[in-house]
């Protein structure tokens, strides 16, 4: 997990995988630029709505600009390799179909308010990662958003209470046990 709020991100490719990566980056608050000569209807809509910038062209290394995160998501392995090499080791690089060329992978995610699960199989099986996420979704339903908000508020109040660290730790341990018991 990384804070991408307002960070520049570049996605190369205009298909389904690129769309998934763009959505993930937008959810994280990144400022997304898409580079692709053609794009899916949904990517075109996002560009038209000014949610992303779209450079309707073939990728060139000068497209990297200030991008902090770079995603190569074309259907051409050679283009993806070129993007990864051009991005170099000082950026976060994800290569959709060749994860070994990048330095980070995009996990599937489940969020229940403050509770966030990230699941990755290291590129071995995205289908398995989604299955595990779906199993977790059944175990940790929407009620966990409220439970974590309560726990957060309790913890915040305890910090301000003047209780010793040992007292706070014990009280928090009991609260967590209560949450788990209620599952």
Automatic annotation (TrEMBL):
Ribosomal protein in keyword set: no
Pfam assignment, any one: Sirohm_synth_M
Domain Siroheme synthase central, chain residue ranges per copy: 118-138
InterPro entries: Met8-like, NAD(P)-bd_dom_sf, SirC_C, Sirohaem_synthase_central, Sirohaem_synthase_N
This enzyme's EC code(s): 1.3.1.76
Pathway recorded for this protein: Porphyrin-containing compound metabolism; siroheme biosynthesis; sirohydrochlorin from precorrin-2: step 1/1
Keywords, sorted A to Z: NAD, Oxidoreductase, Porphyrin biosynthesis
Catalyzed reactions: precorrin-2 + NAD(+) = sirohydrochlorin + NADH + 2 H(+)
PANTHER family: SIROHEME BIOSYNTHESIS PROTEIN MET8
NCBIfam families the record matches: cysG_Nterm (TIGR01470)
Annotated protein name in UniProt: precorrin-2 dehydrogenase
Lineage, highest ranks first: Bacteria, Bacillati, Bacillota, Bacilli, Bacillales
């Amino acid at each position: 997990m990384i804070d991408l709020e307002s960070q520049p991100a570049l996605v190369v490719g205009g298909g389904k995988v690129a769309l998934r990566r763009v959505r993930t980056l937008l959810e994280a608050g990144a400022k997304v630029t898409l580079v692709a000569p053609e794009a899916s209807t949904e990517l075109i809509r996002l560009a038209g709505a000014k949610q992303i910038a779209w450079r309707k062209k073939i990728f060139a290394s000068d497209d990297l600009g200030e991008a902090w995160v770079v995603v190569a998501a074309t259907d051409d392995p050679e283009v993806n390799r070129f993007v990864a090499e051009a991005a170099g080791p000082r950026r976060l690089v994800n290569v959709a179909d060749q994860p070994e060329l990048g330095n980070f992978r995009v996990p599937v995610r489940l969020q229940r308010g403050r509770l966030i699960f990230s699941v990755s199989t290291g590129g071995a099986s995205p289908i398995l990662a989604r299955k595990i996420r779906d199993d977790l979704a059944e175990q940790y339903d929407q009620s966990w958003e409220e439970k974590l908000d309560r726990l957060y508020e309790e913890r915040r109040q305890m910090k301000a209470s003047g209780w010793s660290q040992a007292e706070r730790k014990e009280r928090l341990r009991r609260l967590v046990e209560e949450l788990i018991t209620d599952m």
